[in-house]
Automatic annotation (TrEMBL):
The lineage of its organism: Bacteria, Pseudomonadati, Rhodothermota, Rhodothermia, Rhodothermales. InterPro entries: Calcineurin-like_PHP, DNA_Repair-Maintenance_Comp, Metallo-depent_PP-like. GO terms for molecular function: exonuclease activity. Keywords: Exonuclease, Hydrolase, Nuclease. It holds the Pfam family Metallophos. This is DNA repair exonuclease SbcCD nuclease subunit. Residues 163-196 are annotated as: Disordered.
Amino acid sequence: MWADTVPYAVEQAVDVVALTGDVVDDQNKRYEALGPLQRGLRRLEEAGIPAVAVAGNHDFDALPRLAEMVEAEHFHLLGRCGEWSTVTVAPEGRSPVQFVGWSFREAHEQDAPVESFPDGRLRDDAPTVGLLHTDLNAPGSVYAPVSLGALRQCPVSAWLRTGPAQRSSCPAPPSATSISRWTWTQSTTRGPSRPR
């Protein structure tokens, strides 16, 4: 999937690539497993495309290592150590968009990350996109359980999320397809695709 995503992003000249966790297989977290991801990030950097990411339960330790190996200006790992963080992406000639994200610290996270959501630190002059790897509507889960209602209470324009169980979908608000003239794509098991 990553091998298809990078060329597609470069070909389409997207403004940013967002990764919502579990992009490194937890069964093969050695340096060799990070190689394709690192090469893809380097290709995005060469094309002037930043990448923002959060770590999931499978790559909670691998993505921070990767972040230390690549250019910090173009790869932003949000939410290190389980603390929400933000980055603003402002492509030339486009309106800025702020990303806010939270990353797994360990393979299991029983607390709901939205309980510590940083409302007061968000910009009010740009749309905000939340990045989260979480178990949706699964109280008691060990994978950062969050309810859809709790996500809707957070002051973000759209959520990009994945999770270990994928028991239910998290519909994006109508504005998610047109925030600041950005083009939204989603990655499926077959690679990137445009929403219909």
